[in-house]
Design brief:
This protein is an alpha+beta fold. The chain has 9 helices and 5 strands. Helix 1 crosses helix 3 and helix 2 runs antiparallel to helix 3. The radius of gyration is 25 Å and the shape is elongated. The N terminus and C terminus are likely disordered.
Length: 242
């Protein structure tokens, strides 16, 4: 019940202001600022793309006899190329920020939305070295992705592969080592490597395998706090320009 003041007014609880919706240009700004912190040359890269595109469009326009039309076309093309280059550089900067940090695999593979089930926590962890293995299930089968030096990650992967094969003996099991050593997959190629695997299962079989894998659970402790996947991922709206 509201308390009456001496002058007859009442005290009312303050109404919180509704959260303002972030516009697409705010997303673009955030992506640019994040990229510039990692790659200060991004400003000159974007300026160069704009100048070269507009210069080429105007040159064609004057040669063709329609400079105004080509200037308008060049402006649209320049903006499109700017967004594409910014998206590419934002993705590279995001990867560079988390490369080598615990939990990088989960942050990167978490961007794959369609057709894959990714365990949020690693399924195997070496508490002393922080080496870990993440598990994904999709139409290619079961994919185990490790973090850590190859001589240690290989053993961890083989142990997890034996566990998985006992639960799902007829399901293809793929192992991938993330890292920058020879024979490992760098972070920039990790998503593409997983998505290129040949599809062997149907959607119904993927669901059945996922249920079987739930019996194995995930490892404890969870992913170390060194990587915040929400901050590590590129902003999709900014990358699309909307």
């Amino acid at each position: 019940m509201a308390r009456k003041k001496s002058d007859g007014a009442t005290d009312a609880a303050p109404v919180p202001e509704p959260e303002k919706k972030q516009r697409w240009y705010h997303n673009v700004r955030d992506a640019y600022q994040m990229t510039r912190r990692v790659n200060p040359a991004i400003t000159w890269i974007l300026i160069g793309v704009f100048v070269l595109t507009m210069g080429l469009a105007l040159a064609i326009g004057f040669a063709w006899g329609h400079p105004i039309y080509m200037a308008f076309f060049g402006l649209l093309l320049s903006l499109t190329l700017l967004m594409a280059v910014l998206a590419w550089q934002t993705r590279k900067s995001s990867y560079k920020q988390i490369d080598g940090r615990p939990g990088a695999v989960g942050a990167v593979l978490g961007q794959i939305r369609r057709g894959w089930n990714l365990e949020q926590e690693p399924v195997a962890v070496n508490p002393r070295t922080q080496d870990m293995v993440f598990r994904m299930i999709g139409k290619a089968g079961i994919v185990l992705v490790s973090e850590g030096p190859s001589h240690r990650a290989g053993r961890l992967l083989n142990e997890e592969k034996r566990k998985v094969s006992r639960v799902a003996p007829n399901v293809p099991v793929h192992t991938v080592q993330y890292g920058n050593e020879e024979g490992q997959v760098p972070i920039s190629k990790l998503t593409r490597t997983v998505q290129k695997l040949d599809k062997k299962l149907t959607s119904a079989e993927v669901a059945q395998v996922s249920k079987r894998m739930q019996a194995l659970g995930s490892a404890k402790p969870p992913v170390p706090k060194g990587v915040d996947p929400m901050k590590a991922r590129p902003d999709r709206k900014a990358m699309k320009g909307r």
